[in-house]
Every structure is written in C-alpha cells, then in structure tokens.
Amino acid sequence: MMVGPASTCQYVTFRIDHLWLGIEVLKVQEVIRALEMTVVPLAPESVEGLINLRGQIVIAIDTRRSLGLPPAPGDRPSMNIVIHSADSAVSLLVDEIHDVLDVPVDTFAPVPDNMPAKQRSLIGGVYDLESGLLLVLDTERLLEEASCASLPFQTKPASPKQISLQVNSRT
Amino acid sequence: MGLQEEIRDFLIESMESLANLDREIVQLEQNPADTRLIASAFRAVHTIKGTSGFFGFETLGALTHVTENVLSQVRDGKRALTPELVSLILSALDEVKALLAAIEATGQEGEDRSAELRVRLEQAASASEIAPVSTTVQVSAEAPPGRKSGFQSLRSKRPPAAATGPEDGGALLTTLPDASPRPFATAAGPETGDAAVTASKGRQEVRVEGAAQLADSTIRVDVGLLNRLMNLVGELVLARNQLLQDASAHSTSLQQTSQRLNLITSELQEGVMKTRMQPIGVVWHKLPRVVRDLAAQCGKKVRIEMDGAETELDKTIIEAIKDPLTHIVRNCCDHGIETPEQRLSLGKRAEGVIQLRAYHEGGVVNIEISDDGAGIDPERLKRKAIEKGILSPEQAAHMSARDALHIIFLPGFSTAAQITSISGRGVGMDVVKSNLEQIGGTVEVMSRTEGGTTIRIKIPLTLAIIPGLVVTLNKDEVGSRAEAAMPADGRRWRPEERFIIPQANLLELVHIPAAEQSRRIENVHGTPVFHHRGKLLPLLYLGRVLGRREQEEPAAGAVNLVVLQVETRKIGLAVDRIWDTQEIVVKPLGRQLKGLSCYVGATIMGDGRPALILDVVGLARLGGLLAQGRPASQGEPAAPAQTARSQKLLLFRAGSFPRVAVPLVLVDRLEEVDAEAIERAAGRTVLHYRGEILPLISLAEMLVPEADPEQVRRGVLQIIVFSDGPRRMGLIVDQIVDIVDEAITVRHRVSAPGILGSAVISGKITDLLDLHALLRATGKDWAGAGPDKPSNPGRVLVVEGRTATREMLQGLLETDGHATAPAETLAEALGKLRSETFDLVITALDLSGEQSAGLQLLQAIRGDVLLGDVPVLALLHPQRGSARNVKPAGLGAFDAHVYQDDRTELLNAVASLVSKRTTAQEVRQ
Hints:
heterodimer; A: CATH 2.40.50.180; six-stranded mixed β-sheet; 41% strand; globular; B: six-stranded mixed β-sheet; 29 helices; 42% helix
C-alpha cells in the first residue's frame, strides 16, 4: 500500500524518553509486548538481557542506555521492536510504539548539531514533520556499538599454550 | 554366519568408491586430460588393492594390481586413454565388483575367473607408449573371445551363488545398523552399463541383484535436512518441557495427553538423534591401512584389533575425532610398538597389536587406543621436557608419573629421537588434545607397567542436546538486597538467576552444612579454598565471579558446591541452590554477547525463559583461577577452636623439598602469575606487582645454589607473598599443598640454609621455612623499601612456645637491627632475664584468664626488683577470637600490645619501647 511514488518512505515510529524515533519498516520483523527477560551478567551495558521469541533466543538491547538516556522511571514494561540483524534477530526496547508513517523523503535533513554526541552518532538524520521532529535510528550503528561496547570484566590473559610457544620461539 | 566387521566395512567402502569410479572413468574418457579424475581413480583402485591384500583376497589383489598399473601409466602420461582402454578398465572394475559381491554373499572370493582379464591388462600395461594404436588393435582383437569366455564361465557359475545371495544378504541386513544411511554402489550401475560394452550386462545383473538387497534398506538423506529436523526436535523438546510444567497444574486428561506427548517426543528425539549417528567403525575402517602402511614404512609388524566398532556417535563428532584418532594410532605405531627384533628379545611376539575399543558409559563414549609396545617412560618424558625447556628441573622432579605422562600433550613436545615423515615434529598430541576438548571431550594417557600404553578419549554422544545441571543464584532474596542492587547498575534485579553447567564438566556435588564451614572452607588471604577428600581445591563464588554480588559471606548458611573439572584442575563453584539435571538444547548467543567467555550459549527452560549455559573454563579464568591472581578480600578467616599451641601452617612444595611449612599468619597472599611476567632488574628476579616491584626468591634456587637462576620458567608460577607493612617479598614455590592447623614440634634442627628444621606435620616429615634467612636474602630490598632503621637497636627476649613463630619473630627483629634471644617457656624466660640484660621482652604466651602463662610472666617480671622496669610487649594472636575489639583482660598491664600479624606496628612498638628504655637508662647514668 504505497501511498505516493518513490517520494515517501515508511517508518515504524516509537518513543524513547522525550525522543520520537523511527526505523525503516523493512528492517522491522515484528513488534511485541514486554517479555520476561533473563539478565546476562557481565554483558555489555547496553544489553538488557535475553528473551525467548517463540523458541529463538533474542538479545534485547537497552536502547535508552545506548542513546545515553537515563533509565526509565518506574518499572514500566517496555515494548520490543524486533529487527533483523546480520546473524539473528535483535530486540530493541522502547517506551511506546507509535504509528507507522509514510514520510515524504524531501523533508529529510541532517542531524542537528546541537544533539548530544552519543545520540548524534546513532541518528542517521531527521524528518521535519508537522507532528514533530522524527529521528531516524541507525540500527546498524546501534548494534555495532552494542557489540563492541566495553565489556567490564573482559580480562583475557594469554593462555599457557601461547606463552610457551612464545618462549619456544625465543630460545 | 556373519561377515567380519572389517570386511563388511571394506565392502561398503569399496562399493562406494567403485560407484564413483565408474562415473569418473566415463568422464575421464570424455575428458582424458583431467588429472584430478585420473588421480582419484588411481587412489580408489589403490585403496581396494591395499585392503584386499590386508584381508588376503588374492584374486582381488592381483586384479586391482594390474588395473592400478594401467592407471598409473595413464596418470604419468605414459599412455593415452583410448576408448578401448577405458572399456578394459571398466570390465576390470566390473570384475572387481563381482568379486566384492561374491565376498559379500559367501565371505570368499570364489573361483578365480579373471586370469584372462589380468593378462590383457598386463599386456596393456607393458605395451609401450610409442605404439598405442597397435596396442589397442591387439587388445580389441583379443577382446571378444576373452570377454565371452569370461562371461560364459561367470554365467555358469553364478546361479548357485545368486541362490544363496538373498538369504545371506538378508542376514547381513539385520546386522547393519539401520539408522545409518549407507550409500551403495548400485546407483552407478546403469551408467556403467551405458558406457561399458554391452557384453558386460549379464554380469552386472548378477552383481546388482546381490547389492540391491543392501541398498533397499538404506536411503541417502541430505545432512542439512537432518540438521533441520534435529533443530525442530530440539524445539519440540523445549515445548514439551514447557507443557509438562504447565500441565501439572491442570486436569488429568491434559496431563495424560501431555504425558503421551512426552513419551513420543522422547522417542522422536532419540530417533532423530539416531539418524545422525554413525558407527565409529566409519572412522576406524581407515585405520588398518594407515597402520599397515606405517608398519611397512618403519619395518615393524603391527596388527590392529577393533572392538565395539558399532558404537554410535553423532556425525559431527565422528568427523571431529577422525584426525585425532588417526594421529594417535600413528603415534602408537611409530613410537609405541617396537621393531620385531626388539620385541622378540623382550619375549614378546614379533607382531605388535594396536587395540581399539569403543563403548558407551554414562552418556559418553569411551574410545581406548592401546598398544602392547614399550610403554611411555615418565622419566624420559621429563628429561625431554627439561631439555626442551618446557619444564623446570624442580617441577619435573616432583611430578608424579601420571602427571608426567601428560607431558605428551604439551605443545612443542615430541620424544621421537629423529623427525620422521610420520611423527616427531612436535605438533600433534597437543592439537589432538585441543581438538578433542573443542567438542567437549577429554583425553588421558596411561602407561602400563608390563609395557604398552593406553590412551582413553571420552567424548559426548552428541553436541546438539546435552545434559546440564541447573543451578541458581539468589534463592530467597527479593526484598531488601534486590532494591539495594538496583541503583548500582540500573537493571531490574530478578529474584532468581538460573545457569546451566554442562554435565561434561561436572565431577560431584558437595553440600557443606553451616556447622562444617569453618573447618572445610578457608580464606587464605583472599583466595577461598576448601578441603575436599584430602585435597585443597580453589573455590569460586558464582555470584561474585559474575559480578552479581560484592561479598559472599560463607558463614551465612550452608554452602552448595559443584566440583568441576576445568582443564587439568578441579575447582569448586559455590552456588545458592542446585536443582536437577535436564536435557538442554544449546543455542548460540548473538553477536553482542560473543565476547563473553563465561558462557557457552543459552537455552530455553521449561518455563519459557532463557537461561545461560556456563563455560567453566572461561569462568575459572574470569575468577582468576587460571593464570591470574585474585584480589584480597577483607575480613579474617573464621577461627576454629584450637589448642593453645596449634597454629595454621601453609604447606607447599619447592625444589627438592617435597613438604615445606610456613605459618599462615606470615602469608599475605597466594598468587599465580605467568612466568612471562617475571622480570629481572638489578640482578634480581622481580615481579611488577600491584604497582610496586616485588622481589622474588625461588626457594628451590636458594636451597640449591648451584641451580641456574637464569633457567627459563614456563607456565604458571605459584608465588607466596609475604608482607611486612609496605614491604613485600614473593617466594616462588612449585605447588601449594595444603593448609593445616596443628601443633608442631621441631624434631630435627637445621637441615639446610633456609630451613629451620623438620617437624612431623599431618603425619609426614615437613621442613619449616626459615623466613629469617629469606629476609636476609632479600635484605637490600627490604631495607630500602621499609621504614627507617631504629636508631637504637636493643636486645629483645622473645618468649613464645611455637618454634616457627618464635624464630620468625626473631628473624623479623634481627632484620630490623635488634639482637634477640629465644625463650620457650616461662621458666626459661625468667632464667634468661636474670642472667642476661634485655631491653625488651616480647611474649606471645597465652593471655586468656588470670592464670595464663602470659600474665604469670608479666607478674613474675614486675615482682622481681632487678627486672621490674623491663618493658613487656604482648603479642596477640590474630586468630584467637575473630573480633579484634575483644581483648583479653589484664592487657592493660603490659607496656604495649600488638597483633602478631601487624608487623609494622610491631616494629614501631619495639623501636619506641627500646628507645624509651635506653633513654631512661642513659638519664639514670
């Protein structure tokens, strides 16, 4: 149900804190209610936990944290937006799901400079719409940052094997 | 009835390769320049030749031999592949198939019908390349009668064989494991017929008839499909688990249905798992040839025996063990079995035997490879390891024979005197070990006294569904602590966290009741350990390792421990609660969590929630047990009730001293560091340690001065860190043995410099470490880093019953510049005080109660006019009473009191008391 010619683009829009964000509809697999979460100790801080999506284990990303926003007030259940990623599905936790919008491409604009750096790096651009400023979430960047975020306890000492090999080569 | 396993495997393999060969030869005819095809055909024929020789099938051997000759000429480019030649080869292959069919049906080759064919092949082979045309003419001229007679004779012979065929074939079928799809030669039959000369049809029919019996019962299935089925069954198992849990609360009819579903699912799971199972014989049947070739190459006679070839394993595992297994067998052949002459001189049979055994045991498959060769000499291994610098002589000296055998798994190790093409390059057994460990297997080696070696491999049946133990953290706290944890990381704190430990890593479960904790769990200055079956095992608290808890109070109730095998070590993992064992489906973690080494993956539990599967190796590394030290924790170890003179001793092994003891109060921390981290500075061995330079002493080197201090150390070193306020010193030892709580009596004095004497501890002779000597050995460092020397050295009388403590105190004081004298008892102290002059008395005698020795000493001194003003310092035992603020009555009467483990305070107090006293004396004079 394309509305216009190629001049519009469909976005799933949602809210996190005060931000109104959107993800291209084609990237989204599904939107589901909050599921019970299994915490992963020592995980990167942007990983909230694991959820069971019909037998599939899906990592849930704390999108708030990724965007450098404060934790959600209270214990309000978040919504999951499940998106396709390189190897498996990943769920993004958001506060509230809004409509799917047809956005005219010509309203696209680069990211405002006054945005906090942490957010600016994850926002691909903005649409200046009548209903407000829609920020386009760069999901690839988001997942990438989540996976290489500093692991607090990642101390990987060289295995004994490597050590003796090094010594071998020296002697 | 029943063919031997090996022959059956040979038949299956040969038929499979012949099926390919038919196709390949035909392709080759169209594309004669394809060297890959020629080589492949050559290999296939060569393999059949080799194996038939092994089983003693002479006709088959002779026929394949000449065929091979022809093919080798083609391969070497000595002759062109004419259609005539192809026909000849194909008819030879047909004859090979007929022979194989006969062997399958009757177990014997039957009459030799291929003589003429062989002659023609020989002629073809001997014909020179210059006259290919004439050769073909010759061949084709001779061919018709040859074929005809061959087929006629075959036809006439065939009926009886064919008559017995079906029965035998049927019997054979039942012996075949029906779960494993066995591809057979038949598929290629029609192709062959098209390409080959029409005359060969009659023979093919006979052959096909025999083989079809086997082929009908099996079907080729794409492994990808099986994998998908396996995944689906995995999901089904999870759904079932979930349903069972839910159904238990519902109506009986639902329960019945779910029970039925449960049974069906279990059976389905078993069935689908079986489709991926293959008998281990699939890997084994390649070994006879390997052994045969190798034996011939090194002039040995070796026979291979197999037992349990029908033992089934998952296909992926079969694939993974193929190379390790071959390598081990080659090693047996090359290193294990002696030459026939050696064997005869030892009274053994000239022919060595390698025995392969496979059997199921407790959910794992055991594979044993034994040889009756020379066995492994642990001493030789040690020498080699020292030579190669893999081990230090001290380490080697105290290695048990069993441990020494495992040297062969160290990287870069090989004992073969010379590097042969077979083995000896020192890559191998370590790779074997790591390959096996990758699939969750273990490998151990045993050498028998009567000669011979056995290598035992244990591997899981399958990788996709594994049994695992469910453990949890936070069994009961949802309240205060959960809230307290909230603000720390902002995450919602779940009441209970579940983890799964793969069964393969599990050794046993231990429950330590609260009452026994103080006896069984100790905190050696930050490293928790527990006594288990006479051994001291390091202890990890799961909650702490995973960063879920800051502190673990071992005293807060019973402790549940899971004893795990981590690489070569055993460790204890403390969890809040141990549940049951479940079959779990391992699912990989996404990219975002790949970096976490403490998890293998995740699974979905019966209640639908995901749970993490722990990687015990990663966990141990994270907990600092593998190649890393642990930071010290606060708090004193719980004090067990003890007799007045008993003290805690740390037992360790160093150099040629199998048991050395040092009082635990002197030990600051126990560390494990990589040998790589040790450096040399200003001619001393030092370690960069928590921001300072820690001087290191190797006890082994100090006690045996001629040992080369530059000797390269390998692996992980055990270091005992002694500290005295800001000053620290590390002692390199070979192994920490135990901690005991015992009264000691020195039996034998001064056995070596660095050793105070010997005593019997825990029923064994143990040397007592002379810390005094150690302090002197690092004297400069201690003086340099420590507080200033006292301006007024004094004479101090040390009154202490425990020899080790007393001598340690003396050592400490003397290092600080004071002169000391020892006294063991009250009477001896008073005697010495009256006969000599002292500036200070230090006593660590018992202070509890009015009649305690400490107070008596004080009263005796104060009561004596001559001694009256000698200051007396009381040393408090840090373990007497767990709280420091509970102080014995009458302490105030002493001039000062200091805790025994607070050495800075002690030295300061001594210095101030001594200077006060000397100043007073000067004033008086």
